[in-house]
């Protein structure tokens, strides 16, 4: 996976969920977000 800033990571994750693209890519992005302690959506 290429190196992304936190903002790029969250945007990529949201976009992948919206388009319903590859499930594996969504899983990888989600794991990286959790590892960095980010919240992709506002509560």
Quick one: how many beta strands? 0
Structural class: mainly alpha
Q: Largest sheet at a glance?
A: none
> On the 0-100 scale, what is the average pLDDT?
87
Number of helical segments with 4 or more residues: 2
Distance between the termini: 28 Å
Q: pLDDT below 50 for ≥5 consecutive residues: which ranges?
A: none
Number of separate structural domains? 1
Q: Choose one word for the global shape.
A: globular
In terms of DSSP E residues, the strand content is under 5%
> From the structure provided, what is the oligomeric state, counting identical versus distinct chains?
single chain
CATH topology: Helix Hairpins
Element order, helices and strands?
HH
- As a percent range, the share of helical residues equals 55-70%
Proper CATH architecture: Orthogonal Bundle
What top-tier CATH class fits best? Answer: Mainly Alpha
The Cα radius of gyration reads 10 Å
Protein name: Sporulation inhibitor A
Pfam families: Sda
Organism: Cytobacillus purgationiresistens
Describe the protein:
This is Sporulation inhibitor A. It holds the Pfam family Sda. It comes from Cytobacillus purgationiresistens. The protein has 43 residues and is mainly alpha-helical. The protein has one domain: Helix Hairpins, CATH 1.10.287. 65% of the residues lie in helices and 0% in strands. It has helices at residues 6-19, 23-36. Helix 1 packs antiparallel against helix 2 (23-36). The protein starts with 5 loop residues before the first helix and ends in a 7-residue tail after the last helix.
């Amino acid at each position: 996976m290429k190196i992304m800033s936190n903002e790029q990571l969250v945007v990529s994750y949201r976009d992948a969920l919206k388009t319903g693209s590859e499930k594996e890519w969504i899983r990888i992005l989600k794991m990286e977000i959790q590892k960095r302690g980010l919240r992709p959506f506002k509560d």
